[in-house]
Q: What sequence folds into this?
């Protein structure tokens, strides 16, 4: 069965990995709801570009997913305007880098809200429709940091380990209903999220910019950043029929990082 005509919500899809995932689904004939922040004109150009390039419907919502009600609202918006949410990609995320004793309380709360609780609230809203239709795909963009830690990223690593547990739990609950729930665990992907943490990491570790980049890639035996297109292709595979027996998986795509 092709994915053509299915409806997807991809959170945090105005940039980076989420945008690549939304475009990859659209290329398969999936209607997409984009979400995230950024310049209104640039986002409209992305949305309209997806519609004209791939001949699908593309919606956009600026829902702030650090707010629980906005997560359910985003799912409801897609259901009302597309008819269903068949594929939910919980991808929106942010990072902050600081030693734990200096880690700002508000950053901890925001990162837990966006990188973990938002996925819970969106899943809770989307699962009833998926159960009713006996088909659904939930894909969480986790991280290698769902499996291993790095210093100075307490909130991010805690949230990503949390999403690993959420993925496995919901996979068990929904398995009898034709729904799969998986997490993709990328290593370092060159996106604005990684670019923005370079200055803070330079400060926290007393390093130059080049030293920070070398340190990031030192984690990955391939010595290459993962690309957004690679992550998107895995998301499309996980939504397809050949992945119907993959559920509750924490799928690494990290150049060998966590194998070490
Ligand atoms: P990015 O900064 O390019 O994109 C983040 C997206 O989230 C943007 O669209 C942004 O507007 C949106 N966003 C931010 N705050 C939001 C909010 N409150 N409500 C709704 N949307 C919001 O980052 P990225 O690197 O593409 O990251 C995407 C996901 O991939 C994140 O969950 C991140 O943790 C994960 N990830 C990234 C890497 C990496 O190396 N880049 C590695 C592993 C996992």
A:
């Amino acid at each position: 069965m092709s994915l053509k005509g299915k409806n997807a919500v991809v959170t945090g899809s105005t940039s980076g990995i989420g945008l690549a995932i939304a475009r990859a689904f659209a290329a398969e004939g999936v209607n997409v709801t984009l979400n995230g922040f950024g310049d209104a004109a640039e986002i409209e150009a992305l949305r309209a570009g997806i519609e004209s390039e791939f001949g699908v419907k593309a919606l956009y919502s600026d829902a702030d997913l650090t707010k629980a009600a906005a997560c359910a609202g985003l799912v409801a918006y897609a259901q009302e305007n597309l008819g269903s949410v068949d594929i939910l990609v919980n991808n929106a995320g942010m990072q902050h880098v600081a030693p734990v004793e200096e880690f700002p309380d508000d950053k901890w709360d925001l990162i837990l809200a966006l990188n973990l609780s938002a996925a819970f609230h969106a899943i809770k809203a989307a699962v009833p429709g998926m159960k009713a239709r006996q088909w659904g795909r939930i894909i969480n963009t986790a991280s290698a940091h769902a499996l291993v830690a790095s210093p100075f990223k307490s909130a991010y690593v805690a949230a990503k380990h949390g999403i690993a547990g959420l993925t496995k739990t919901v996979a068990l609950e929904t398995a009898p209903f034709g729904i799969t729930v998986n997490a993709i665990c990328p290593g370092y992907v060159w996106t604005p999220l990684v670019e923005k943490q370079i200055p803070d990491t330079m400060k926290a570790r007393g390093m130059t910019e080049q030293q920070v980049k070398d340190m990031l890639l030192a984690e990955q035996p391939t010595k290459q950043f993962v690309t957004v297109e690679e992550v998107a292709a895995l998301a499309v595979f996980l939504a397809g029929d050949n992945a119907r027996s993959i559920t509750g998986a924490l799928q690494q795509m990290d150049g060998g990082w966590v194998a070490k």
Observations:
- The chain has a mean pLDDT of 97.
